[in-house]
């Protein structure tokens, strides 16, 4: 394991340990609901979004420990989105991270409610960033507003709606960009931005980190599409427009594998260029490489 991988592991373990402190107390809600929420949110995962919050705060001189409430809140939103995405009404998945999905384990109604409760409680966690030394109250208001927008109809939920609405239909590349930048990109982007905002970054740096988050989010989604195809040998190599039409619209089904790889390369270079003048850019440079080259 190289130094960057060790750092990612260390940061993800921090989130694994801290999440419990920002979830509701076990004796304050029905046990079944608590069990379903913790089953999903404490079941591992890369913790990419909370790491982005913590590392972007650190990039602008604020200790990552100070933004842990927001980092945990954003992971709760991510966890809710996966629970709902796995439901029979959406992707109808039986497994998530190698374990039965929340609805397979607890039933559909409880899974739906566990997702609802995680989404709502996320804003309790995020609001806990209020009053922490070194963080301006108006920065907390700003991130609550922007995270709500990114998670809601103008962001992730809007992207998911368009995704579901276009399954099996021909869409153009602009529609695919809309779906990806909203369904997946919005939460990744706002996580990158939120740490910077809490750290009091300048308007210029905030705008730059917004762009950085947008590019990271898009690279993440395109690589996800590429990994999907690589994991499904049956559709790899078949002409675009045949069997792939029965699948969801992805970068690979619309652009092809080669062009998708080229786009990953282009966007990750652009992301690196954004921060190349900053002396403390090593972690983000490595992160961009990691996301572009990940194999899971
Ligand atoms: C239900 C409103 C609503 C939204 C769902 C996130 C999402 C939107 C759908 C997930 C579908 C999917 C597999 C998209 C590809 C990109 C993605 C978000 C992968 C999962 O995120 P990771 O890889 O997961 O960060 P881990 O397990 O590491 O937390």
Automatic annotation (TrEMBL):
Q: What Gene Ontology molecular function terms does this protein carry? A: (2E,6E)-farnesyl diphosphate synthase activity; metal ion binding
Q: Name one GO biological process term.
A: terpenoid biosynthetic process
Q: Which reaction does it catalyse?
A: isopentenyl diphosphate + (2E)-geranyl diphosphate = (2E,6E)-farnesyl diphosphate + diphosphate
**Which EC class heads this enzyme's classification?**
transferase
Its domain of life reads Bacteria
EC number(s) recorded for this UniProt protein: 2.5.1.10
What are its GO cellular component terms?
Answer: cytoplasm
Key words, A-Z: Isoprene biosynthesis, Magnesium, Metal-binding, Transferase
PROSITE patterns, sorted: POLYPRENYL_SYNTHASE_1 (PS00723), POLYPRENYL_SYNTHASE_2 (PS00444)
**What cofactor(s) does the depicted protein rely on?**
Mg(2+)
Output the NCBIfam families linked to this UniProt entry. FPPsyn
Belongs to which family? Belongs to the FPP/GGPP synthase family.
| Listed name of the protein | Farnesyl diphosphate synthase
């Amino acid at each position: 394991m190289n130094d960057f991988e060790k750092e990612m592991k260390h940061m993800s373990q921090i989130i694994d340990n801290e999440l419990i402190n920002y979830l509701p107390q076990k004796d304050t809600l029905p046990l079944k609901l608590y069990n379903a929420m913790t089953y999903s949110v404490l079941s591992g995962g890369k913790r990419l979004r909370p790491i982005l919050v913590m590392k972007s705060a650190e990039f602008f001189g604020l200790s990552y420990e100070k933004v842990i409430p927001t980092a945990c809140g954003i992971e709760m939103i991510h966890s809710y989105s996966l629970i709902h995405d796995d439901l029979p009404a959406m992707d109808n998945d039986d497994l998530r991270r190698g374990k039965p999905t929340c609805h397979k384990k607890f039933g559909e109604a409880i899974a739906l409610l566990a997702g609802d409760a995680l989404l709502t409680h996320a804003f309790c966690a995020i609001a806990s960033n209020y009053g922490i030394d070194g963080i301006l109250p108006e920065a907390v208001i700003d991130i609550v507003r922007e995270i709500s927008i990114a998670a809601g109809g103008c962001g992730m939920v809007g992207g998911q709606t368009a995704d579901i609405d276009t399954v099996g239909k021909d869409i153009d590349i602009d529609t695919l960009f809309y779906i990806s930048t909203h369904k997946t990109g919005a939460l990744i982007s706002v996580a990158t931005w939120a740490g910077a905002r809490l750290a009091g970054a300048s308007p210029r740096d905030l705008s730059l980190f917004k762009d950085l988050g947008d590019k990271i989010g898009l690279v993440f989604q395109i690589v996800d599409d590429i990994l999907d195809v690589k994991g499904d040998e049956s559709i790899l190599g078949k002409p675009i427009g045949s069997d792939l039409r029965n699948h969801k619209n992805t970068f690979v089904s619309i652009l092809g594998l080669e062009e998708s790889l080229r786009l990953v390369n282009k966007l990750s270079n652009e992301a690196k260029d954004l921060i190349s003048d900053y002396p403390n850019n090593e972690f983000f440079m490595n992160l961009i490489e990691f996301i572009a080259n990940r194999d899971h």
